[in-house]
Amino acid sequence: xxxxxxxxxxxxxxxxxxxxxxxxxxxxxxxxxxxxxxxxxxxxxxxxxxxxxxxxxxxxxxxxxxxxxxxxxxxxxxxxxxxxxxxxxxxxxxxxxxxxxxxxxxxxxxxxxxxxxxxxxxxxxxxxxxxxxxxxxxxxxxxxxxxxxxxxxxxxxxxxxxxxxxxxxxxxxxxxxxxxxxxxxxxxxxxxxxxxxxxxxxxxxxxxxxxxxxxxxxxxxxxxxxxxxxxxxxxxxxxxxxxxxxxxxxxxxxxxxxxxxxxxxx
Length: 266
Prior knowledge:
Layout: H1 5-29, E1 44-50, E2 57-63, H2 69-96, H3 114-124, H4 129-136, H5 152-163, E3 169-171, E4 176-179, E5 183-184, E6 205-211, E7 216-217, E8 222-224, E9 227-229, H6 240-265
Antiparallel strand pairs: 1-2, 2-6, 3-9, 4-8, 5-7
Helix pairs in contact: 1-2, 1-6, 2-5, 2-6, 4-6, 5-6
């Protein structure tokens, strides 16, 4: 029996926002033909410049346009709705048990560590004891020394929701050249691609080739990269869609666990 309809609906809203975010990201990186242009526009290009120290020409793949605000809005919606679902699951389960407190608010006990988590719950003493193991099993705290468990990704996203600030995007630090570009030009006798493919976050670019003379980089290269949340580790190292999916999966996991508890006690 589905006793916790409110958090279930909120999770669906969050997942819908995440699906829209995926589509918005795909739309952003796709080519667009906007009249009167006859050549498709794209948010990226290959830039070239002579390297003074060596005299070589260096070519880099660069993202030249900012991410659309729609992506930021949808990410914020998914994060905030996900956090609300955690709180709604605990509130709705407590209400179903007929144990709503006269004072105090029911929230997910996001914490520093296991001791802090249990201290928050026991000090307020408003979450019914029968629900606590389900909440504790989610490990809503950071990993650290001296204890087992924790989830830095989930905890950091919850912190973003609490901060209520704009969510930005960035390319994570590595990129893979799946297909190297064809290069042609007079005097081009050596093409070097043996350079670490580390994404330059300041310039939003990655190296793809180096030649001893000016050359033509053909449009047949393939660069694979991941769009991450523009936040400190671990979020900057994980694809944004994966990180947000993990957060929503945890909210759903808590909801299902609390429903099992309710079905056993009501």
